[in-house]
Specification:
D-Maltodextrin-Binding Protein, domain 2; 10 helices
Length: about 260
């Protein structure tokens, strides 16, 4: 099915693999309506700035209200919220083989836990919500006094380090979120964080600029408004994308 308003639609997404996977689902629908898609990626702040400047028509996706709300707030009146693709939330997680007695962030300070746990909390880029949240956790739980420290980095810095640690059954904490490919590969237990510093559950919202709606057309927007991916499928799509595009090597073969 095509519509009469077919044109180039500029789709932007945050430069992380699972956002790429979600954008491909949106792209497929736009193409089915006869549109050509110009898809681009950038870090968190920059992709929102591009949308504010009118350099992209759609953004896949804004995590609202906590993670990306501040980025969108300055131009929220200029966009339409089309659909909620999935419901993401951030965690500090540990591999399932770490004893269940390590149940919460505060347990990282217990001497017997601190003695075994690696002190580097390796994150992704500094503009991510999980990066901001993790810095607050380090500060408000007094973790720095025990040697814990957060470092921003790339996806591979964070995810690759976790997979190597799991292969060697080392004690490690990963600042992560649902959905993400690692949840499709491993059982990761979220640590309790009673101070509420991880932002709660967001809604991953597909947004479109009002000035692009007519060009995209009502039929395409209507179909996009019915698009729901969900957390489990989003994790699986991310896993498949990372494997097929060579973003990381296959995980070690271990029982789940």
């Amino acid at each position: 099915m095509t519509d009469n308003t077919s044109s180039v639609v500029r789709v932007g997404h945050i430069d992380l693999s699972f956002h790429d996977a979600g954008a491909r689902e949106v792209e497929a629908i736009l193409k089915s309506h006869g549109h050509h898609v110009d898809r681009s990626a950038a870090p968190h702040e920059e992709i929102f700035q591009r949308m504010r400047r009118g350099e992209i028509d759609m953004l896949v996706s804004a995590w609202l209200p906590a993670s990306h709300g501040d980025y969108l707030r300055r131009f929220e009146q200029e966009v339409r919220k089309v659909t909620v693709l999935y419901e993401p939330y951030c965690i500090w997680g540990v591999p399932e083989y770490i004893p269940a007695e390590v149940a919460g962030v505060a347990d990282l300070l217990r001497p017997e836990v601190s003695a075994r746990m690696e002190k580097l909390i390796q994150g992704i880029n500094p503009g991510a919500g999980i990066s901001r949240f993790s810095k607050a956790i380090i500060e408000q739980y007094g973790l720095a006094a025990a040697g814990y420290h957060f470092e921003a980095g790339t996806e591979q810095d964070s995810f690759g380090r976790f997979e190597r640690a799991v292969a060697e059954r080392r004690w490690v904490v990963i600042p992560l979120w649902h959905p993400q490919a690692l949840h499709h590969r491993h059982k990761i237990r979220a640590l309790e964080e009673p101070k509420g510093l991880l932002g709660g559950t967001d809604k991953a919202t597909l947004i479109v600029r009002h000035d692009a709606e007519v060009r995209i057309g009502a039929p395409a927007l209507a179909e996009l408004s019915r698009l729901t991916i969900g957390n489990a499928r989003m994790s699986a799509l991310d896993d498949a994308l990372r494997r097929t595009t060579g973003l990381d090597s296959p995980p070690p073969k271990r029982g789940r």
